[in-house]
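Quick one, probably user error.
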């Protein structure tokens, strides 16, 4: 593979995403749950200037149920479904480029093209570009934030911090991950670029202990100080949102994330929980107790119920956590809507080889422990987060591009072994 194939690869990625996205219905279906909520938020912002949507489950307007990052993106596209999907196709194609650039720095051009190809052909990433959900934007911001966080220059590294801090407005569950990524990025930015030389030399470069900074080498704060700065940036990003909530007549409280946390926790821990999200059943049963509660009171109600249930059912809670991990990392879709043979076949054909390459890259692909830890962190973090809420293939999607870096390194290692085994090669 040559580096000149990158434009072709990006073109294929964009064509796949546009081809899928533009065949989706042009009208929003009110039964689409999360998608309809995001669409309402964006529409209300454009037409009334008010950030709210009508939650049909409670017959009530809600004002802090979703952070504003993704609804602002939808509103910027005029809340036009086709425009949003085209924008998401472009954004997701940029994720392919980010993974290529990151992988090329640490593993060279061959591994970079393979990693980019894995992301370009990812059927789950393609699928989500056609939905009005935050996955596509979140995944792209995460990938670019990781890339920039290892930039040699201080300005580049700081811009990575800013991007990762902004990710919190798209999905607040990433709060604990951002400082870890920034800290590891601060370590890796001092490693030399290794786009030249043998695969073994690259491994030695990154596996060796980091030397003290020398003249001309990238300098910066201690990783812990960078992580602290990232926390301060997160606070700065969330401050306007929290202040708005404190001043809002219906809330009057400093809500730094959302009022969605309680029901999400209860969705994962109650008597009928299976590990999947299924709110319809328990909401119907709890309707008498929920009647008349405000948005904040409902959030507290569900959070307290869920925590009490976990304490009273520790064994069952552990079983549910394991079930959620299984659902999150299933190679095939598990929902009834996408459980057809065609979707199962697509999932298996893509996921099984990529998983195998990932494990080869993880254990044999070189790159050093810190680099692999950085690429693995999103997967480890979100596995834990969703073991404590609900599990779905949807929640692993942002983890797959960083994992593709390791898979690309594994594939490149296999190709190098094969090449060196040929007669007459050195």
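Nope, works fine. Designed sequence:
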């Amino acid at each position: 593979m040559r580096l000149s194939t990158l434009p072709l690869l990006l073109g294929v990625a964009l064509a796949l995403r546009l081809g899928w996205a533009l065949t989706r219905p042009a009208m929003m279906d009110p039964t689409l749950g999360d998608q309809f909520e995001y669409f309402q938020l964006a529409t209300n912002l454009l037409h009334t200037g008010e950030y709210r949507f009508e939650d049909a489950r409670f017959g009530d307007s809600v004002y802090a149920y979703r952070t504003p990052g993704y609804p602002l993106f939808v509103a910027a596209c005029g809340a036009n479904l086709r425009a949003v999907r085209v924008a998401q196709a472009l954004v997701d194609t940029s994720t392919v480029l980010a993974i290529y650039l990151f992988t090329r720095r640490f593993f060279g051009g061959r591994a970079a093209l393979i990693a980019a190809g894995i992301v370009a052909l990812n059927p789950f990433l393609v699928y989500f570009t056609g939905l009005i959900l935050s996955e596509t934007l979140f995944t792209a911001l995460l990938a670019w934030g990781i890339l920039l966080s290892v930039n040699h220059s201080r300005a580049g590294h700081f811009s990575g911090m800013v991007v990762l801090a902004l990710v919190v407005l798209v999905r607040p569950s990433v709060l604990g991950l951002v400082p870890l990524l920034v800290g590891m990025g601060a370590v890796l930015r001092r490693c030399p670029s290794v786009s030249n030389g043998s695969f073994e030399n690259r491994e030695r470069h990154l596996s060796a202990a980091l030397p003290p900074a020398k003249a001309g080498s990238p300098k910066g704060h201690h990783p812990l100080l960078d992580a602290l700065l990232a926390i301060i940036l997160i606070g700065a990003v969330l401050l306007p949102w929290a202040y708005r909530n404190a001043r809002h007549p219906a809330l009057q409280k400093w809500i730094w994330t959302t009022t969605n946390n309680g029901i999400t926790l209860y969705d994962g821990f109650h008597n009928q929980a299976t590990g999947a999200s299924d709110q319809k059943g328990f909401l119907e049963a709890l309707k008498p107790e929920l009647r008349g509660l405000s948005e904040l009171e409902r959030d507290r109600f569900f959070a307290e119920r869920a925590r009490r249930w976990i304490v009273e059912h520790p064994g069952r809670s552990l079983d549910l956590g394991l079930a959620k991990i299984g659902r999150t990392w299933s190679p095939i879709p598990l929902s009834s809507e996408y459980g057809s043979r065609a979707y199962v076949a697509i999932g298996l054909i893509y996921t099984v080889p990529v998983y195998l390459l990932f494990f080869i890259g993880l254990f044999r692909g070189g790159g050093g422990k810190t680099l692999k830890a950085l690429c693995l962190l999103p997967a480890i973090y979100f596995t834990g987060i969703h073991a404590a809420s609900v599990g779905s293939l949807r929640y692993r999607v942002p983890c797959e591009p960083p994992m593709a870096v390791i898979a690309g390194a594994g594939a490149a290692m296999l190709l190098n072994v094969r090449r060196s085994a040929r007669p007459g090669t050195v």
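The beta strands are 53-55, 60-62.
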